[in-house]
Amino acid sequence: MASVRIREAHEGDCADILRLIRDLADYEKLSDQVKISEEALRADGFGENPFYHCVVAENHPAPGEPQVPLVVGFGLYYFIYSTWKGRTVYLEDVYVMPEYRGQGIGSRIIKVVAKVALDKGCSQFRLAVLDWNKRAMDLYKALGAQDLTELEGWHFFRFEGEAMRELAGK
Amino acid sequence: MNYFRVRPAVAQDCPVILCLIKEVAACENMLDAVKLTVMDLHRDGFGKNPLFYCLIAEAYNQQESSSTITVGFAMYYFTYDPWIGKLLHLEDFYVIQAYRGLGIGAEMLKRLSQIAIRSQCNCMHFLVVIWNQDSIDYYTRRGALDLSSEEGWHLFKFNREELIEMAGEE
């Protein structure tokens, strides 16, 4: 019987990670915003000072089946800092291919990242969800997460492009 | 006339940084929420792989121009968007009450934007509480976009108790 294993990503996974990043962007209806390349993912995640860390969910076919293992999901996270609580894990993306959903793979990825958070001395774990993604919101709430936007009014803000260049005095 | 300067923080600034962090928390009646110590700041900000960086704003003493007092700080770190790569996240940004309106905040934002551009970051992100109208106005006047309102992003958080529960199940 096929089984899914959650493991740390390695450099060779970047092509699959990019494939899944593009799938996730399609799912969020924001495909035209994916500008990253496989080379950038490799340099930024597997260099001397990585800007992110990744775990992948790999489907292993049953013995005797002809298929090779396939990366069917991923979780991309990094460490941030709270001025009140210190080290915190931020789960930037978690995604499972549609045909592999409903098996608890997403939850398993989140739990692996939770363990990393504890091992690294983090006292909390943050993530962002789009308000129309009810399935994701329900999953996180079921695992015990709190919606700080709803509870405390936190909003994400961004300076980009021209606004940022103007601030920089350029 | 007041003179001030903005400079990168050094390890010796940790006690004054913690002081300002506590001052911000006290303004929000959340002093008990600050669990960070000077040792945490030292280890996490000034070691081999810093989890955060700080800018310090200093005002020159009008009576004795060779001495300065710390009047503000900005804490930031680098995050990763799998669609566009590196971002700069502004975690905290504060100027003490008596020194506001002098352009210190604007100078810190300018330096942060320059750092972001120099570090090949596509944009600068930060979180604001939506009913903090003064802050909202300050940032939107300078071109910031509210991603939570515009795109529907919600910030979620797991606390330590939930992390322990989740990690125990994987």
Characterize this entry briefly.
The complex is a heterodimer of chains A (170) and B (170). Chain A has 170 residues and is α+β, with helices and mostly antiparallel strands. In chain A, 35% of the residues lie in helices and 32% in strands.
Topology record:
The complex is a heterodimer of chains A (170) and B (170).
Chain A: E1 3-8, H1 14-27, H2 38-46, E2 53-60, E3 70-82, E4 86-96, H3 105-119, E5 124-130, H4 134-142, E6 146-147, H5 148-152, E7 154-160, H6 161-167
Parallel strand pairs in A: 4-5
Antiparallel strand pairs in A: 1-2, 2-3, 3-4
Chain B: E1 4-8, H1 14-27, H2 38-45, E2 53-60, E3 68-81, E4 85-95, H3 104-118, E5 123-129, H4 133-141, E6 145-146, H5 147-151, E7 153-159, H6 160-169
Parallel strand pairs in B: 4-5
Antiparallel strand pairs in B: 1-2, 2-3, 3-4
Helix pairs in contact in B: 1-2
Features:
heterodimer, A: 170 residues, alpha+beta, five-stranded mixed sheet, 6 helices, 35% helix, 32% strand, globular, B: 170 residues, 7 strands, 36% helix
Query: In what range is the share of β-strand residues of chain A?
Result: 25-35%
Oligomer: heterodimer
List unreliable stretches of 5+ residues of chain A: none
Order of helices and strands of chain A: EHHEEEHEHEHEH
How helix-rich are the residues of chain A, as a percent range? 25-40%
Shape of chain A: globular
Span of the ends, CA to CA of chain A:
60 Å
Q: Classify the beta-strand content of chain B into a percent band.
A: 25-35%
Helix content of chain B: 25-40%
Gross geometry of chain B: globular
